[in-house]
Design goal:
The chain contains 6 helices and 9 strands, in the order ββαβαβααβαβαβββ. By secondary structure, it is of the alpha/beta class. It has a 7-stranded mixed β-sheet with strand order 3-2-4-5-1-8-9. It has a two-stranded parallel ribbon with strand order 6-7. The longest helix has 16 residues. The two termini are 21 Å apart.
């Protein structure tokens, strides 16, 4: 399994993601955690992400999971063209719904376990990999919705990680104060977790896992 999991944007050492990626540099950029934002704001942030990834020599393009709600077979075919998946931050509960409604959740778990793709992301794109999203509601509004989304909250994460992640920990970020509450929740409920300060990233390459900053 190959993962690059950043607290904020691409982190301070984004070049450390490159050894994880195969010769196929086509990168699917998923920004569905931003779907409740205005179209202009979402587009601007998407372009910033694409520019940052392109500067590393990757070939990024948006993959909008809304186009595949109820079309998992189509999404499965599209994913075969990419060597890297990058998931930007936003609302983790909205992102989780997009994963479920498109079938991306099961597809990415299968691809990662078969080592057919690498996965990177920041903030919500990292939190969604935990066994559960419990505790994250202290940071992200759990009832946030956008057009085309189901109302019901999905509490289970993808279980790719065996612990939860608290990004923006003790950082200069608007959510850092609420992250402290999230960490206290993890402690009180005996939930395994790791904290990430902005600039840091968890790098998983097979059996090896490190935090880079």
């Amino acid at each position: 399994m190959r993962l690059y999991l950043s607290s904020y944007k691409l982190g301070d050492k984004p070049e450390t993601m490159l050894p994880l990626i195969s010769d196929n540099k086509r990168t699917a950029v998923i920004a569905n955690a931003q779907d409740s934002k205005s179209a202009d704001s979402r587009a601007e942030r998407m372009q910033q992400e694409i520019d940052s990834l392109a500067a590393l020599g990757l070939q990024p393009e948006e993959l909008d999971l809304r186009d595949y709600f109820g079309k998992t077979a189509d999404l499965s075919e599209v994913l075969k063209d990419f060597g890297y998946i990058w998931v930007r931050g936003g609302n983790v509960f909205l992102l989780r719904k997009a994963y479920k409604q498109s079938g991306f959740d099961n597809l990415i778990v299968e691809l990662l376990r078969a080592d057919k793709v690498a996965y990177g992301g920041s903030s919500a794109g990292v939190c969604v990999l935990a066994p559960s999203l419990r505790g994250i509601e202290l940071v992200d509004p759990k009832d946030e919705v956008a057009e085309g989304y189901d109302q019901k909250v999905v509490w289970d994460g993808l279980g790719i990680l065996d612990y939860s992640v608290a990004p923006h920990y003790r950082s200069d970020h608007p959510e850092s104060e609420d992250i402290e509450k999230c960490v206290e929740y993890f402690k009180a409920n005996n939930i395994p977790y790791k904290t990430l300060r902005d600039g840091e990233a968890i790098v998983v390459n097979g059996d090896q896992e490190d935090i880079v900053s």
